[in-house]
Amino acid sequence: MKVLILSALLCMYSAVTHAATHAVTHAAPVSKSTEEAASMVEGPLPEVEMFAGQCPSGWFKKGSRCFLMVTSKKNWSNAATHCVGQQGSLASVQSSDEYNFLQTMVTFSGQSSAWIGGFHFQGAWRWIDSAGFYYTNWQTQNSVSRYPCLQLNSNGGWSNYNCRTSRAFFCARNGPPSC
Ligand SMILES: *[C@@H]1O[C@H](CO)[C@@H](O)[C@H](O)[C@H]1NC(C)=O
């Protein structure tokens, strides 16, 4: 019962906060996207509790999922390990909405590309979080045997590259339960 009351209060709180944020955003539309995008780029963060209706601090909500951009560069497998340490996975990209969101972050962060969670294994492209590989956005596709890791490019689309290269990367995790 106490837990139920607490989560109801958190839902009310986050609804009010959300409304307030929207009011401010609508009052000052100028350079909103630049500021928003700049504030999206965060380094690794300690584990943070998830509040009702919100992503953990430093993560950004898109649809039903939360995304984190990590700008300290790592090779693909170390990036994947880092995301697991943040209770997430190297990000799958499951829709054009998610793709556009991540693409905007790469561009505003000044990175030329960032790792995402796609890799080629046993004849197929797969996502490390086990999502189905249905949505695609290829810019170029190189030899899958030499370049089995997927990167999202700031100049559009994604391509496969050498997994040992160090890059910024995206983690994703399931979003908070909706109220
Ligand atoms: C990734 O980087 C780590 C740390 O530098 C290194 O130990 C590991 O061998 C690298 N893995 C690959 C596939 O390059």
From TrEMBL:
Signal is among the record's keywords: yes
Domain of life according to the entry: Eukaryota
Keyword annotations: Signal
Pfam families membership: Lectin_C (PF00059)
Domain C-type lectin: 62-172
Signal sequence annotation: 1-19
InterPro entries: C-type_lectin-like (IPR001304), C-type_lectin-like/link_sf (IPR016186), C-type_lectin/snaclec_domain (IPR050111), CTDL_fold (IPR016187)
Name of protein: Ladderlectin-like
Origin species: Clupea harengus
Lineage: Eukaryota, Metazoa, Chordata, Craniata, Vertebrata
GN (gene name): LOC105900080
